[in-house]
Amino acid sequence: MASEFMAYLDKSKAIGNALALIHWDMSTGAPPGGIPARAKTFGILAEEQFTLAVSGKMQEFLQAPQEGLDELERVSMRESQKFYDSWKNIPPEDIGKYNELLGNSQSVWEKAKAESDFASFAPALEQIIQWQRRFATLRGVSGNPYDALLDDYESGMTTEKLDAFFSQLKKTIVPLVQEISEKGKKFDASFAKRPVPAETQKKISKLLMDRLGFDFKCGMIRESVHPFTTNFSKGDVRITTNYHENDFLSSFYSVLHETGHALYEQNIGDEVAETILGKGASMSIHESQSRFYENVIGRSREFWESVYGSVIALLGKEFSDVTAEDLYFASNQAKPSLIRIESDELTYSLHIMVRYEMEKEIIINGRPVAELPALWNEKMREYLGLTPPDDAHGILQDVHWSQGSFGYFPSYALGNAYAAQFLHFMKKDIPVFELVKKGDLKPITQWLTSKIHMHGALKTPEEIVVGATGEPLDASYFTNYLESKFRAICLQ
Amino acid sequence: MASEFMAYLDKSKAIGNALALIHWDMSTGAPPGGIPARAKTFGILAEEQFTLAVSGKMQEFLQAPQEGLDELERVSMRESQKFYDSWKNIPPEDIGKYNELLGNSQSVWEKAKAESDFASFAPALEQIIQWQRRFATLRGVSGNPYDALLDDYESGMTTEKLDAFFSQLKKTIVPLVQEISEKGKKFDASFAKRPVPAETQKKISKLLMDRLGFDFKCGMIRESVHPFTTNFSKGDVRITTNYHENDFLSSFYSVLHETGHALYEQNIGDEVAETILGKGASMSIHESQSRFYENVIGRSREFWESVYGSVIALLGKEFSDVTAEDLYFASNQAKPSLIRIESDELTYSLHIMVRYEMEKEIIINGRPVAELPALWNEKMREYLGLTPPDDAHGILQDVHWSQGSFGYFPSYALGNAYAAQFLHFMKKDIPVFELVKKGDLKPITQWLTSKIHMHGALKTPEEIVVGATGEPLDASYFTNYLESKFRAICLQ
Which end of chain B is more exposed for a tag (fewer CB within 10 A), N or C? Predict the structure, then answer.
């Protein structure tokens, strides 16, 4: 029975792989003429996968006597049960229709963003939100539909818990940003806008991925409008980036970020990797890894010292006046800005708060789509003191909503907090920044692999963080990290 | 019921699209580490698709009263019935295992070919052949297992019919090749081996695809070891080529060939395109289109006259001594050679006969795999008078067997014959080569679209050829075409 159940889940995994490949393909160059047919295929396969998860057959498996299961089978059963309980009231046809809509929406968003035209994305967004609210309401147990969505990305997460979490972050970040804006040191980072051809940036990507230990026999990098990571097995993990000629640091940090995700997937234990648990413990834990490599390592002075020579050699003589220290400061300008994925570590969480507030308005309060751009700009002024010049630099900047990912953004902020906590305890075991300075990241990745990566989703986020650090998540590691880092850089 | 049946077939189409995308992906750069997991996914999805086609549900559909069906539903029902009858005795698990094997085999073949090491491909080939013979025997009605395989690519085709067809071709081709080798004019085509960088060849590909009318909004070109065409809808049709720096004509004709396939798919009627009948009437009819554009048009004097200026401009000053006439002759050297896809129109069919003889030995007579390289070389000596220097230039040159495509090769020769017959009748309607000379291929493609492309698989090969030419297939159009073309080029 157990092996029959695992074979049944293999089917779901196979369809999931096909869906991921369609998504990869449509994001990395598929011709526009194929969108409607591809969206239809996407809808049909998503419906098939969903049907497997809520079928009578699944119910049989879940009700069968569960004795003699090994850990993999037991956790697979528990996760299947959780999904079944949460989604069993949703008709599979709805999932098919909804996913066909998503299959069409990403390119609608891409075009709307390119033309900074929110109105052309609004009808698709409107429909996605209607489905999201419908699903959330049908699934919701706490009475708060947003909680159902949060729970998809971080098991047990609620609006109440997040409100408290963000309020704690705010207490440190808001006055610190204020203080830095008033009396912080001013850097001239204009060199970072000097043109760097995509071909050069591609070589930098390769250099960074090699440095972090990305295995190119088991993965690759391509380009897409919005950077992302996907995988079809631990032997095939793919990341994308987006090269901006006048902002090479944008792709630089995207690549570090996505490679962080990729290392997680490449290092999942063999026995777990090709099952439905061959993925991150949660989105937040996944983000903790991407943001650990991007920020904790990638935005450290020691990292810049170690890659400086190779990067400057690639950037060429136009950058010969730039020092490692310049690059370190340019990567850590604590300054409110418009684009989340290009923002610094300190103000980053404010971007997430804007999105979190927006999503609560949308999902809980049903704010009409037409009002969203104005609301976005209002929140940006409130949290970051800036008004976007257009929707491309405002509400349209991120791909997530076009993919139906509501409730995902908080994972980024939680990921930052997890990352800081991991760093605190990792430093007790190994000399983290000495290693970074030497360019030897292996012991760091080994630490993360043994405590986090190898387990895949066999452990819950709480089990992971307690296993790795001996404590549950505590945001003060992150606020302390920010205080100490940014006071040193900007105020001393 | 009819609409329920069509929705059921949509599911099969969606899984088929996913399988085609996996195949595309693995042929165009997927990392090697992902092969085993991808092969497993491939096997599971293939089994799912097969199960749909032979399920109890399918049987119900087929047994339901079939009244009030439109043509699309009627033909879909007929094709489903045919597949069901032929395959119902094969256990779906076998299809899963077999396709997992195929998912692994293509890269085994790629490596074996690169290293010219037949022994490393032999175990995979051995297993594929065992499955093929097993399926053919379980399905075979005529007592000849190879007939079941031939029928997959050309409905109603048998070994008996093909023996007669090839014997007719031989009667013209063998003495003509002999006569040309004895007293044919000698051309110096060594210029065709001058180096042409891949970047230049890419521009030539684009030029040719534009010239033929390929719609880049609804398709694209990439590179793979073996050129092929695939599609996910008429809005997303993809071809590949393979650039050889010292043989630019190789990719030149691959691109014309694959674009011929692609035009067929891009021009299928909208109402048929996204159903299971949205494909060619048969592999032979499909090959008739690829070989029509590659050979009938692409190897004509008029085509070279019309593209000469643009191609020479791209080739650059190293080719400034080359005339359109030189290119025409270089593309029509009637001379036995080792590689099928690079061979001339006259000797091409001899390559197909070698493969046909090989497949009969393998499928009907069960010739052991270890004996195949020697048998291949023997047949090459018999038909073409040449001995391959190694297996990469011999038995390993083609991808087909690694994909389980036994019975496919004869489609190429049949395609040539169909193409010549279409040309004969097209010339009665429009001034074919005057148009080619002017570079105006639209009326030619319109003729082919209205008689062939638009119908997809709604008509049988016989209905297509009779509809287009008023007669069933007659190989003498092809033998006459070869006689008149190659006598003019080589013997006058």
Answer: C
Interchain pair A17, B41: CB under 8 A: yes
User: Considering only CA atoms, which of A157, A132, A154 is closest in space to residue A366?
Assistant: A132
Residue from B281, B258, B274, B273 nearest B451 by CA: B281
Averaged pLDDT for residues B40-68: 95
Pairwise CB contact (< 8 Å): A33 & B232: no
Asked if B191 and B245 sit in the same domain, the reply is: yes
**Phi, psi for residue B237 in degrees, rounded to 5:** -115, 125
Of B422, B372, B365, B413, nearest to B395 (Cα)? B372
**Does residue B188 share a domain with residue B293?**
yes
Statement: residue A141 has pLDDT above 80: no
CA B387-B389-B390 angle, 5° bins: 115
- C-alpha B336/C-alpha B380 separation (Å) is 10
The pTM assigned to this predicted structure is: 0.94
Does position B2 have pLDDT exceeding 90, yes or no? no
Last residue of a domain, one of B115, B146, B168: B115
Q: How confident is the model at residue A1 (pLDDT cuts 50, 70, 90)?
A: low
pLDDT in tens, A382-414: 999 999 999 999 999 999 999 999 999 999 999
Helix/strand/coil (H/E/C) assignment for every residue in B219-280:
EEEEECCCCCEEEEECCEEEEEECCCCCCHHHHHHHHHHHHHHHHHHHCCCHHHHCCCCCCC
B484 and B413 fall within a common domain: yes
Q: What is the mean pLDDT of residues A197-219?
A: 98
Contact A461, A449 (CB under 8 A): no
Report CB contact under 8 Å: A235, B18. Answer: no
> What's the CATH number where B383 sits?
1.10.1370.30
Active site residues of B: 258
The DSSP letter of residue B197 is: -
- What's the whole-number mean pLDDT along residues B92-117? 95
- Same domain for A192 and A84? no
The rounded distance, in Å, linking the Cα atoms of B66 and B70 is: 10
**A25, A44, A233 ranked by CB distance to B10: nearest:** A44
B236-241 β-sheet, strand order: B219-223, B236-241, B229-233
Cα dihedral value B411, B416, B417, B421, nearest 10: 130
Count of helix runs (H) and strand runs (E) in chain B: 21, 3
Note down the domain range covering B432: 159-490
| Tens-digit pLDDT profile for residues B136-195 | 888 866 678 899 899 999 988 999 999 999 999 999 999 999 999 999 998 899 999 999
| 3-class SS string, A138-180 | HHCCCCCHHHHHHHHHCCCCCHHHHHHHHHHHHHHHHHHHHHH
Chain A residues touching B48 at Cβ < 8 A: 11, 14
Residue whose C-alpha is closest to residue A198's, from A159, A245, A165, A236: A245
pLDDT of residue A138: 86
Nearest CA-CA partner of A454 in A287, A292, A272: A272
Residues of chain A contacting B, Cβ within 8 Å: 10-11, 13-15, 17-18, 21-22, 25, 29-38, 40-41, 44-45, 48, 215-220, 232-236, 238, 274
B248 closest CA partner among B164, B331, B183, B129: B331
Residue B169 and residue A431: Cα distance in Å, rounded?
77
Nearest CA in chain A to B38: A232
A268 belongs to a structural domain: yes
ipTM (interface predicted TM): 0.93
Distance of CA A82 to the CA centre of its chain: 23
Q: What is the mean pLDDT of residues B24-50?
A: 95
Name the DSSP class of A458.
Answer: S
Distance CA A124, CA A103 (A): 11
